[in-house]
């Protein structure tokens, strides 16, 4: 398969162990300095960091001394996050890209590659929820179901495009911000042309991210790049949740504790293909561990993105 051979040639064909995802307790919050890797001066891209969980995570990584590439559509909110990070020990710059356009995602990757010699961490966090477009089915610029494109295809394509830079920066980390909401991908109708349901579309896109992390972990030597996914926290108080017209049940701080833990815990060095519920290693929906399903997803991703 094209994608597998591409990745293999890129990453010297070292197979990581198959991840079984057995429950093993992890520390429950953002690591202390002693427990965290040193990210001073490291370059980290946090997609969707103009708001919500991504914003808080970008601020925290900046406070740990990283150079943060802040991304979103809102230049105004992006500038505010950049300014806040630049006041502390870290530094930041803003990249604007709309993930409703595959070209927009490619242009973001190209700009990052042109501006930086290395990329130590990629956090695929940008996302939309079931409240997007009032729960109605909508299409991306490329004609794909919008939630699948913004939440999953953007994760796939951006990661794919940035692999050479990540590999050059080994050991690098890629983290997909997924969700506890997980629905097996319907390969007969992945774009949900029949019986669209926004909640189902969201859950499908989030499980697709986990399948991708597990598949990449199998392809790429974890000493070069690790790929992990997490559910940050349930119903945080963010724009995405407010658009669902549902009450918040947790805070952005709780989600950021979990995300920063997975991003920086020293104990996770070289550990790849894991799924976390908060900061706790857990088992995702069974489809994530189904090799055939993962291969079908990669085939579908190649077909839909051309990459
Ligand atoms: N909130 C929860 O309880 C919860 C639970 C589980 C998982 N998650 C996941 O956590 C992640 C962050 O969610 P959140 O609740 O923090 O959401 P949020 O506050 O609504 O923030 C979403 C971020 O994504 C960006 N974004 C949205 N559409 C985009 C597009 N078309 N192109 C580029 N960027 C786009 C937004 O940027 P602009 O505003 O600048 O466009 C914003 O920075 C998502 O992946 C979500 O699925 C959230």
List keywords for this structure.
single chain; 307 residues; alpha/beta; 8-stranded mixed sheet; 9 helices; 8 strands; binds NADP nicotinamide-adenine-dinucleotide phosphate
Please give a quick description of this structure.
Helix content is 40%, strand content 13%. With 307 residues, it is of the alpha/beta class. NADP nicotinamide-adenine-dinucleotide phosphate (NAP) binds next to helix 2 and helix 7.
Description:
- By secondary structure, the chain is of the alpha/beta class.
- 40% of the residues lie in helices and 13% in strands.
- The chain is built from 9 helices and 8 strands.
- It has an 8-stranded mixed β-sheet with strand order 3-2-1-4-5-6-7-8, with helices on both faces.
- Strand 2 (67-72), helix 3 and strand 3 form a beta-alpha-beta unit.
- Helix 2 packs parallel to helix 3 (75-86) and helix 2 (52-63) crosses helix 8 (252-264).
- The longest helix has 23 residues, at 146-168.
- It is globular and about 50 Å long.
- The structure holds NADP nicotinamide-adenine-dinucleotide phosphate.
- NADP nicotinamide-adenine-dinucleotide phosphate (NAP) binds at residues 48-54, 72-74, 77, 98-100, 125-128, 150, 177, 179, 231-232, 234-236, 238-241.
């Amino acid at each position: 398969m094209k994608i597998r051979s591409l990745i293999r040639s890129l990453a010297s064909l070292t197979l990581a162990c198959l991840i079984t995802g057995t429950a093993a307790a992890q520390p429950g919050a953002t690591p202390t300095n002693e427990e965290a890797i040193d990210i001073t001066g490291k370059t980290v891209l946090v997609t969707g960091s103009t708001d919500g969980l991504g914003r808080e995570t970008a601020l925290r990584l900046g406070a740990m001394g990283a150079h943060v590439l802040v991304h979103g559509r809102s230049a105004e909110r992006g500038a505010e996050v950049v300014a806040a990070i630049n006041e502390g020990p870290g530094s930041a710059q803003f990249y604007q890209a709309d993930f409703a356009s595959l070209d927009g995602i490619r242009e973001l990757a190209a700009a990052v590659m042109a501006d930086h010699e290395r990329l130590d961490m990629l956090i695929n966090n940008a996302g939309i929820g079931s409240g997007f477009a009032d729960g109605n089915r909508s299409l991306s610029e490329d004609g794909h179901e919008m939630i699948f494109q913004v939440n999953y295809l953007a994760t796939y394509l951006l990661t794919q495009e940035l692999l050479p830079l990540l590999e050059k920066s080994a050991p690098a980390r890629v983290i997909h911000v997924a969700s506890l909401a997980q629905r097996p991908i319907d390969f007969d109708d992945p774009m949900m042309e029949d019986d669209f349901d926004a909640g189902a579309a969201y859950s499908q896109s989030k499980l697709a991210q986990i399948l991708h992390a597990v598949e990449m972990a199998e392809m790429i030597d974890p000493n070069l790049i690790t790929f992990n996914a997490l559910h940050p926290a349930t119903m945080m108080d963010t724009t995405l949740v407010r658009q669902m017209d549902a009450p918040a049940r947790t805070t952005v701080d709780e989600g950021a504790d979990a995300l920063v833990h997975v991003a920086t815990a020293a104990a996770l060095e070289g550990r790849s293909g894991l799924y976390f519920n908060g900061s706790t290693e857990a088992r995702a929906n069974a489809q994530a561990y189904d090799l055939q399903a993962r291969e079908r997803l990669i085939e579908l991703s190649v077909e839909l993105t051309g990459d």
